[in-house]
Each structure stands twice: as C-alpha cells, then as structure tokens.
Amino acid sequence: MSLRIIGPQAQPQVRERAAGASTPMDNYLERLVKLVPVEAIAAFPLLQEIAAGRGLWAQVLVAWVLLAVVIILRHHATNVPGEGAQWTAIIVAAVSFFIWVYVMGGDFGVNYFLADAGTTPDAAAEMEKNVSFLSTLALVVWTIIVPVFYTGDT
Hints:
Largest sheet: none
Low-confidence stretches: none
Number of helices: 7
Shape: elongated
Strand content: under 5%
Oligomer: single chain
Distance between the termini: 20 Å
Order of helices and strands: HHHHHHH
Helix content: 55-70%
Number of strands: 0
C-alpha cells in the first residue's frame, strides 16, 4: 500500500503503481487517512512515558526523533519512480505530527525556552493552558480542512 495521494487527473499507470486501485481519485476519507501520521502518533505516548523519567531533554528528543521518522517514512511511502516523493503530503504529515505532540502534552523544546525567558509560574501555567487549547483547535481544523484542499497528484 502506498501513502501517495492520487489526484483527479493522475496518469493511469501512476495510479495503478501507487495504490493498486482502479478509482480515478482518492476521496476525502482516503486522503484524510493517508495524511495522518499514525506510525508516529501510536508510538509517541509509549516513548514519551519512558522518556518522562529521564527529564525534559529526553521528551524533546523523542518528539524530534519521531518527527524525523515521519519525514523519512513518508518520503519512502510516497515515492514513485519517475515521479519522486510527494513533498506536500510529507509536510502535511509532519505538521500534523507537530500538532499531535502538543495535543498529547509533548513538547519540541519551545515551551522550555519560553519558560526560561523569565516568565512567572502563573504566566507559565496560563501559557500551558493556552497551548493546550490552541493545539487542540489547530488539530481539529487542520485535520478537517487539509484533505479538502490537498488532493494530491494531478
């Protein structure tokens, strides 16, 4: 199976090679499923729990390593000989993972540097609450909207 998004005007031979299906275009639900980086989202909570006992640096490292895994795996899974990888789909999956990390309480180190910038404990707690709300909102909007506009190869 390929994670390549097949658009409305894709060449038939590319479509057959990429997904092995006979439909002319991936529908919304197929694009939605292909753009969510499940391979990293599933592993993140377990690795985050293991890293929690080792300190913030380990939690940040887990997030960055899994982001690299998403990019590498998506490059491989969307690459078709003669066509190359679908960089838009790779970027969408990477942004999706970035948002998911914050929704699941993780961090890429940004909060650490902001907290070090002289914020008070009250301000840090307020910032954490805002990050939680904004990341959840971003996840819902991003997940629903992107597959509407990104239709893959044309």
